[in-house]
Design goal:
By secondary structure, this protein is α+β, with helices and mostly antiparallel strands. The protein folds into two domains: about 1-85, Glutaredoxin (3-Layer(aba) Sandwich), CATH 3.40.30.10; about 90-210, Up-down Bundle (Glutathione S-transferase Yfyf (Class Pi), Chain A, domain 2), CATH 1.20.1050.10. The protein is about 55% helix and about 5% strand. Strand 1 (about 1-5), helix 1 and strand 2 (about 30-35) form a beta-alpha-beta unit.
Length: about 220
Amino acid sequence: MMRLWGRKSSINVQKVLWCLAELGLKEGIDFERIDAGLQFGKVRTPEFLKLNPNGLVPTLEDKGLVLWESNTIMRYLASQHNKNSRFPADIASQYGSEKWMDWQVGTLWPVLRPAFLGLTRVPLAEQNHELILKSYQETNQLFEVLDQTLASQAFCSGKKFHLGDIVLSLCAHRWMLINETFPKQTGSRANLKNLERWLNQLKAETHFEAFAEKELNIINK
């Protein structure tokens, strides 16, 4: 049976779990999930480090293949289990999605990350409020880029839902949660109507609600 290491509170594990659900794969039937990371530990054990020397989640084991990096795991799962054609396979849709997946991990998340970690992992007395505000406001600008794209198409890669929508929407959801939880520290959140329409559509038509966090996992108290 396929095995996935990672806690459900991790945004990168959420990506993979959502992808698995869209492909019709069920935990306990089609794959085993092992809690790991933060309060669950395990990621620094010799057993885990043999699988993933980075000591991070998610990590996937399947038929002797070991994969880490959440976006890569999603691509693999879609290539192996897309029997219900949940994710379009035409070139335009696939690579329209791919560019946004790379943008999420290489451009969007590095900018949002200081605000998220600064507010949820760093003790209050040690928080760099200038950095947090800068991080959040620059993320506003990045989401405006996505909002412009969504003004003329339903999903990030065109007319149909794809992997890129998963990685982007979980970041967008976290961006909103950060502002709702820490409005003074983040400053105002950009009012992006196309992005909100897209999120509501994902909530209605996909497994978004099952895997998006309901509140931030704050461990700096």
